[in-house]
Amino acid sequence: MHAHHHPRTRRGVVWWRVLCAWAATCSTALPCPAAQSARAHAHDGERVFIRACLDCHTASGGSGLDLTAPGVLQRRALTAAKVVRDGTMPPWLPNSHGASLRDARALTASDRAALMQWLESGAAQTVASVPSAVSQDSPAVLTVRLAEGWRVPADPGLAVRSFALTPEIDQATLVGGFELVADAPGVLHGVSFLWDQLGYGIRLDNSESAPGYDAVGDIGLNASGSAGAISRLAPRVTLPREYAIEIPMRAALIVEAHAQGRGKVESPAATIRFLPAPPNARVLRPLSMHRALCATLADASEAVAISVRAGPRVQSIEVVAIDLRGSTVRLLEIPRWNEQFAEPWFFDPPVALCAGTRLEVRSTVNPAAELVPLDAHATAMSEPTVIVLVADEPTPESHKKPN
Fold it and tell me: CB–CB of 375/314 below 8 Å?
């Protein structure tokens, strides 16, 4: 009996092995839902990385850290996951309680989780296949060199210096955007512009032997940033279509530059390109304000952009619009200010404001910095200065109060 059943036993073993092999093949071809979900999540993480990180972290980005270079992200993936987890990256200061803003880098909870998982799981090995951002060359109405000869100290503190430049502008010119090309990306944090037709900035610049002058770029009641600003976080900025900033003829360009040491003495020199405006663009005008100085609109207007200058003494910033009925619209709220991540923000869509609307700045003081002695720069930035760029309403039909 034993000899009679032995062939069937061997045959059964063979068929069992065939069945197991077939099952293994099926499990590879048809992954389980959990595996499919993990792979989809990894793909989502890479998508978030490309959208939220590559504006800054390429060879031409403003951070000074190219995460698309071979092997760089792989070595830094866990550190990158940590700063994504604690909210430091991607940098975006405003919260969602203000008006809607263009190109927001703020991540949803699911996007942040997908990005962290992608970084921690080793999926970042595929980043080498991600193309770097392509430079968008376009004609410039004006190109200037900035900060040549200035050396930023090695110490990590913030350095502020202003420069008076005299470009040859023979007629009023409209600008539709800016591009910042730093010689050493990452040193220069950002610059803000003001056009000076009175010559004060030139006299200040000539009063010092070193390039530029040791002060913020305000001229009288005109605050730096009234003619636009640009940051290393977004080194190419275009105004929303149909809007422009006017360059007056025969005026000096005052540039306030913010830089930070990185452990060695470096030059923050850069090239700034002023990009052309579209035809029939509406000219923006600046409204400057701080906590003790409100701005009131004489005519119905659209708020298009907003920028803030403030030092580490400032904790939180809120900018509100209050109409004649007392109704309040919050334009911007920054719960935790960080000067390193300052940039111009653009309302999307522009915010309609009726005549008589008052714009106010509210802020709180950082308790940790309250007792720190103030130098000249820190004093000038101990209260936030806010610039709102507005345009007149284009038609009577659009003269409506904000909801």
Answer: no
Structure-token pair, residue 311: 């030092």
Show the domain range for 274: 141-282
User: Is residue 65 domain-shared with residue 93, that is, in the same domain?
Assistant: yes
Residues 316 and 336: beta-carbon distance below 8 Å: yes
DSSP state of 240: P
* Closest by CA position to 176, among listed 211, 140, 206: 140
397 and 368 inside one domain: yes
In whole angstroms, what is the distance from residue 127 CA to residue 54 CA?
A: 11
Q: Taking a C-beta distance cutoff of 8 angstroms, is the pair 149, 210 a contact?
A: yes
How far apart, in whole angstroms, are the C-alpha atoms of residue 199 and residue 201?
A: 6
CATH of the domain at 361: 2.60.120.230
* Through-space distance between the first and last CA atoms of the chain, rounded to whole angstroms: 93
pLDDT tens string 346-375: 999 999 999 999 999 999 998 887 666 666
What span, in angstroms and rounded, lies between the C-alpha atoms of 224 and 192?
6
Query: What's the chain's average pLDDT?
Result: 84
pLDDT digits (tens, 9 = 90+) for 123-138: 666 554 444 444 456 7
The residue assigned the tokens 């499990």 is 27
